[in-house]
Amino acid sequence: MDLWFSEKQTNNVKFSIRVDKQLYSGQSEFQRIDVFESPEFGKFLTLDGYMMFTEKDEFIYHEMITHIPMAVHPHVENILVIGAGDGGVVRELTRYEEIKRIDLVEIDEMVVEVCKEYFPHTACGLEDERVHIFYEDGLKFIRRCKEEYDLIIVDSTDPFGPGEGLFTREFYGNCYKALKEDGIMVNQHESPFYEEDALACQRAHRNITESFPISRIYQAHIPTYPSGHWLFGFASKKYHPLRDLDEKRWNERGIKTHYYTTTLHKGAFYLPAYVEELLKDVEK
Amino acid sequence: MDLWFSEKQTNNVKFSIRVDKQLYSGQSEFQRIDVFESPEFGKFLTLDGYMMFTEKDEFIYHEMITHIPMAVHPHVENILVIGAGDGGVVRELTRYEEIKRIDLVEIDEMVVEVCKEYFPHTACGLEDERVHIFYEDGLKFIRRCKEEYDLIIVDSTDPFGPGEGLFTREFYGNCYKALKEDGIMVNQHESPFYEEDALACQRAHRNITESFPISRIYQAHIPTYPSGHWLFGFASKKYHPLRDLDEKRWNERGIKTHYYTTTLHKGAFYLPAYVEELLKDVEK
């Protein structure tokens, strides 16, 4: 059997993974959902044919989108997570005892059901009693919120198609409003390398910069995402991602990670020259 | 025309680039050499079917393998470069006025000729009068050298096939001998992500650690290399890659870069937890 899943990362670049077998294929109200088993990456989930995560490298994305803000904000109790029906973000968050409530807003209930069945290691966090799942459009949910959250994590799909609204000025403005006076918002921010992705990056950064006084970008190596060079946005009302990093406090928690460390935290914000330039163009 | 170049990054992962046309194909005494034109990456060179560099992202590799040691060592005059027949490493080095001599040892003259014809932007540095090219096996060349160089850059192919000898304990021992008392050796060090590459990484790191008192690893995002997460080795007799970094001195030179900055320099040494663990296992 010679079976390959391929994703066109651009019209001219293709990333392919050998597949042992397809474990699931379904169509929800919103998108096509597939699960595959592969020798290199273990199981992986795709939405509308785009790679969402693999068992082998999901830890990188999920650690970097959660532990960075958690190591900066001194006292996080209430969190809103938008997207992330796979449970990976929530799994990392439930490792913090001080967190009291996690509201998870996922538009597609079928994603949650599929992940619970095929990715128990990722979805396990969803069972935590602090987690409240709302099957709703994040765009609408956020409009009702006011000064409720210490942290908002936007774990969206790409800014093309269903996830598009989660990259707009209106949405980021509503996130600002939904955060307490010292709140932080973190979002997945695409890649700076391929032209179309880089433009999406710039647009998102411009929109965030208009709402938040502190807006910085950080990076990680995620092999199954286009170019492997992935960015995250750190937007904040008060705390600076480096000056307010408290390494001692975070390390005393004893949380075991495979990618994140408080040393790597700092390096993640030291961007290549061409990325700095890309972002500077929209900061003016 | 639907023409694709594919590289199997492992037996189970394939990276493919759309090709406009093949510009060159030849067989040297050592390897098959091909040049392609692509819409996404411009022209690119392959050796025995493996991606060596593309016009679009070669700047990342070449800046990171040269400017890191140049920003640490206070006074580099004599340099040995092994491999690197494409001229990219030499191009970056020729931007430093204080460098007096660059010996380039490339086993395959045909690589140099092909790069001069198809990659003038990369090969341009080879015309500098400080550059002396030796068409020889680097393994043999290095045996004759003693305390001659301030810096050795090992720009090898992978540790499988012809480049294998450039990852051995004997070779690194000879590099140590060829360096002056405060010399630095930098080498390309593979990727930590896929299992076979990670093992090669560990072996190389173990072998370097046995010869050099200071041996550290740093990373860069290189989209066309397997996993996009690429490592370099920094081995040194005296200077520490972070404690002896002189940001002011380097920035005063006014060298314009697209990836390297002296801030990024520091972050490049802050490795993910799983890479730290991979390396620690062989440091004992």
From TrEMBL, chains A, B:
The active site is at 155 (proton acceptor). It is an enzyme of class 2 (transferase). One of its GO terms (cellular component) is cytosol. It comes from the Bacteria. Its EC number is 2.5.1.16. Residues 2-237 form the PABS domain. Pathway: Amine and polyamine biosynthesis; spermidine biosynthesis; spermidine from putrescine: step 1/1. Pfam families: Spermine_synt_N, Spermine_synth. It catalyses: S-adenosyl 3-(methylsulfanyl)propylamine + putrescine = S-methyl-5'-thioadenosine + spermidine + H(+). S-methyl-5'-thioadenosine binds at residues 31, 106, 137-138, 162. GO terms for molecular function: spermidine synthase activity. The keyword Transferase applies. Keywords: Polyamine biosynthesis, Spermidine biosynthesis, Transferase. GO terms for biological process: spermidine biosynthetic process. Belongs to the spermidine/spermine synthase family. Homodimer or homotetramer. Catalyzes the irreversible transfer of a propylamine group from the amino donor S-adenosylmethioninamine (decarboxy-AdoMet) to putrescine (1,4-diaminobutane) to yield spermidine. PANTHER family: SPERMIDINE SYNTHASE, SPERMIDINE/SPERMINE SYNTHASE. This is Polyamine aminopropyltransferase. It comes from Blautia hansenii DSM 20583. The gene is speE.
